Records
---
Amino acid sequence: MTVNVVRTAPGGAGAPRARASRLVWFLIAALAVLALSMLASITFGSLPTSVGDAVDVLRGTADANTASVVQSRYPRTALGLLAGLALAVAGTIMQGVTRNPLADPGLLGITAGASAGVVSATAFLGVSGQWNTVWWALPGALLAGVLVHVIGSAGSGAGLVRLVLAGAVVSAVLTAYVQAVTLGLPKVFDSYRYWVVGALGGRDFDVLLSVLPTAGLGLVMALLLAPSLNTLALGDESASALGARPGVTRALGLVAATLLSAAATAAVGPIAFVGLAVPHIVRAVAGADMRAQIVFSAVLGPALLLLADVVGRVVLRPQELMVGVVTAFIGAPALLVAVRRMKGGT
Amino acid sequence: MSRPRGFLVLGRAVAVPVSRVPVTVGLVLIVLVLAACVATLSLGRLGIPLADLPGALSGGASGKAAFVLERLRGPRLVVGLGAGAALGLSGALFQTVTRNPLGSPDVIGLAGGAGAGAAAVALLLPGVVPVPLGALAGALLAIALVYVSTGTGFRNPGRLIVAGIGVSAIAVAFIQYVVYAVERDKATVLTAYVNGSLSARSWEHAATIGIVLLVVAPLAAAIAGRLGLAEMGDETAAMLGAEPGRTRTAAVGLSIVLSAGAVAVAGPIAFIALTAPQIARRLTRGTGPHLTLAALAGALLLVLADLAAQQLPLPGSLPVGIYTLALGGLYLGYLLVREWKKGTL
């Protein structure tokens, strides 16, 4: 099995050992990028501080004023770390499971479910504030995910087409509901339009803590599943012949992706493109092995999201551009460039 | 697939093969469309009573009936019919070409571009440029961007859809930013528009979509035969002389013009282009593109959805696009459940 996987890996001409050491170097580089992006995230903001200031704060040698400014950026950096990791790993698993390079968490009804949860809570229960809505976004996202899985995988076959269709169905109905409620109730619309853009700012550590169990469960599942996900790449027949159960692996993989993206969306709102783009970068770096892919996603996803957030803080200073907008404006052109390198056919 | 085939006999020498099922389905759809039109005109507080309707339609309307017919519901109904037919036809062309049952020009950025165009106009040039014009420009710009970035024009469906996802994402992010940045009243109006709406239509709108249909429908009919061949796969189609590349470009082009026309008169209405061809296909159990039936199904869907938008007792008047979204979603769900029971798919 392992031999097969290595053979199918792009650029996998070298011996396994050479590949492994190359991977380690890549991983060190990726971790360095992540560390730099975290440092940038606590350095840049509407109040100017320097990298030196941030380092001083980290070492505990800064004055109280600078320290409080820099420390106010900790929750946002932590959220970026969690959301970026969750979205990227979820995207990697989904693309691996569905073998569809365009699979991303929005496909499973997660975004629509979280939106419906937030809107219902603000409209009918009078909930307000970023950290209260998270308690409604999470169950909304999870419920929608469960619904999609139930509709999409019940009965015979449980094909991926069905799942995608089920996602489209659930998303459409929930989106219609969200639009109807928000257009009918101006007050709800007002808070919804701020939530739906997707932003890291204005949330505190409580938001992070409230989604941490869900995200943690998803990540653990993803890591445990990684070896079985590798066998999926061989095709269902070979995988079954090797004793794997492709159907079960696939279902569990999608559950893990659902948990991860639900946690991220509940915490920071819908963010496009991290789940879609990072897996592509990761495959180019890490090759076909799902274990390596998941590890690299967990490092590069947060790096990308944090850098996008920093860009959003800098371009319109003193105003901020929300990270959801930035990721779309960075990710989409990258996708357009990548299109030209696609092979013919569908 | 055995379809009952009959022949339409014209004189002694001519026998045109006619599939009975599509004709029957077509007639049923026409009757349903007419019924929906009558209901649209006569239901509700301001409706023209059924007994007065023939008189009113033949020019004898006066007072309230004339106002309802000529200003309030007449243009709206005609725009709904036209936009629905255009969307149905557009979706049928697009799905046949891309062989993707979820395809419509919206997938390649048309709806997103239209929304972003409307948003840009609302934000940057409020009151200077009419919003529909901005929407049209945005839609065409998005498509142009997709066309350029694929590098192969409209020939490669896979690339087309990926590029469409990219362009749509930018557009949606832009819309969300504008909705976030402008004050609430404007944001509400913009959101309603981005969903697609038929309220307050005029006869100019009706004329616009009518002209689009008159120009495009014959062209669509002209390539319908080759489209059927293109469905068989590139190699077979090429062997049969169907020039798959060119047919595809032509079909996508026509599909875009139709959807853009609909966007200009009604905003980006969801799901009609997607569901109408599917309904046509399932009703006939056939394989061809069934352009006429898809157009009829589209008109029926949109008029029904707008009927719901006008008559359902919900707070606020919701744009028709929300109803098509909900209806389309439920219909897709119904299909899923049905095919699940049958064990297909």
Note: The longest helix of chain B spans residues 203-230.
---
Amino acid sequence: MGERSSRADPPDPNDLLPPPEPVHLLDPDGTLHEDPDHPVDLDDDQLRLLYRHMVVTRRVDREAINLQRQGQLGVYASLLGQEAAQVGGAFALAEQDWVFPSYRELGAAVTRGVDTGKLLHLFRGTWLSDHDPYEHQFALYAIPIGTQALHATGFAMGARLDDNPIVTMAYFGDGATSEGDPHEAMTFAGVFKAPVVFFVQNNQWAISVPLDRQTAAPTLAHKAVGYGMPGYHCDGNDVLATYAVTRRAVERARSGEGPAFIEALTYRMEAHTTSDDPTRYRTKEEEEEAGKTDPIARYRRFLTNEGLLDDDVEEQVEAEAKAEATRMRDEIYEAPHGDPMELFEHVYVDDTGHFERQKVQLAAELAAAGEVEG
Amino acid sequence: MSTTTLAQAINRGLHDAMGADDRVLMFGEDVGALGGVFRVTDRLQEAYGSDRVYDTPLAESGILGTAIGLAMYGMRPVCEMQFDGFAYPAFEQFTSHLAKMRNRSRGRVTLPVTVRIPFGGGIGAVEHHSESPETYWAHTAGLKVVSPATVADGYAMTRAAIAADDPIVVLEPKRRYWMKDDVDLPVTTEPLHKAVVRRPGDDVTVVAYGPMVRTAMEAAAAGEDEGWSLEVIDLRSLSPIDTDTLVASVQKTGRMIVVHEAAQTLGIGSEIAARVQQEAFYHLEAPILRATGFDTPYPPAMLESFFLPDVDRILDRVEESLSY
């Protein structure tokens, strides 16, 4: 950090350009094509764990949509269809690595072991977030688009300064690549060789706006060249390809070679959020076509072909998915808001001088309301 | 005693803070080899190396956004926005994240970030280099905002801001960077968020902060010729505001003028007037008046003397107050 990148020795753009085709290892029928550049260095248990995380994610995601329909969540942003991109990416991280998510990263959260019930308090409105970021190295959901890319970069700069072998991963979407903050984040990361991986889930839609309104670039992965980092792309509905590509980027970053950019091609099969109406901007035919590349179905075929998925494993995964969804539901269902006085509690470490009168006012209002109710 | 400028005092404060805690980092545009466009970070890179004192790309949101990430990691970042008018690209990181992260996380994430911003006019600069945007930061829950007006406070408030665990915006009065005082450093002063009576008086309280404290002191000296005894309060902290000190003063004088370069409408003076009239209504002999910049964009350099509050504008308000 602090050193100037040597303009006498700028990178060769050919070393940074994405390969002509996105990396793809699993065919829709589950056939695996091995690629020596992208080895799948996973044992059978890990291969099954990938499946488990995707199934749990989809189950919790569906439960969250149900909870919204029942009025238990104010709104919810589904990741349906993006399970492989999120799980495959997060699975490539080591325990000490950090995830900086947007607001649609349930699959990454499940992979990191984050309590999904705590995570979804955001959408119920009991509090703005309720998981401890330092417990699973999973930062708070960031709603302003792309802003978390800078936090991931700063965190990685700090780790590099300490010679601490942490890699950070910023998740964002295709829409976010148009924002200023990811641009500044990638500029900083390139200049300071920060160990950060920018992981873009290109799900083709930013609410109602398709990719061709976000960019005129050949692919999003090509943008990486402008920041002096390699651009990779992969079939984001192929969990093994996503894992292998991310693994390569993460280990490259950990070894001190700097940041990388990954474009995982996927599709947002659900609406943007439960408040959205996709029938106004895309066709049923398009959705059905995209649904044919369902990441979980494809991976299930692979595991079955390999003899890694029998009825016992399926049952166990189903039981875990149901248990996690139930746990989330129990946490969220009719969860009451906390003490209104907590509004003042966390704004500052030291709030002297800020709220004294307003605290008194709210306490009086609460007391008066209590008397009326009592 | 030795003669020190405000810029030198802040520089020494940064130097000593970095010496006291190796988690303190200093970064921004041109803060390294150049030592900052105002030389406030002069020789810090020489002293602490380019890992801890570094130039960033020219990107203010990047400066603040990476400061947030660094703080989450465990560093104590001090970053510089080169000029008031160039802090705006970072506005989203200020308001959506720096200010809110601790509350959002239910207290689990603290961000001990110090943002230094040279602010205010009076230096004959081109557009965007003379603004007083303090209301934006002071209006934002989760930030604290301070402004040193004396050489001693330049040192002590810099140290206190860096030592504090909350995000703090330090507005440095750029037109006073070369102001001198006899101060031996290191020095400690009043607590960071306390207002200070710089000059006691009986007739009218004049509240100012940052660059306008000196102007208010000059007005008080000139007011003596008119037979007016002005009490000058250096607000020091714009968020939180030390209401008690203001109320105590107006209970004595019964009259108050608030002075700032920033535009009048929704300026800090509006908040002070509201608070003081609420808490000291029966002590007031006159409405609380304001000597401020106009509700116009900051003017071109050759017209700035007509925009900025000066001794005459302050004394006009004093006279008006005394006429009630």
Note: Chain A has 14 helices and seven strands.
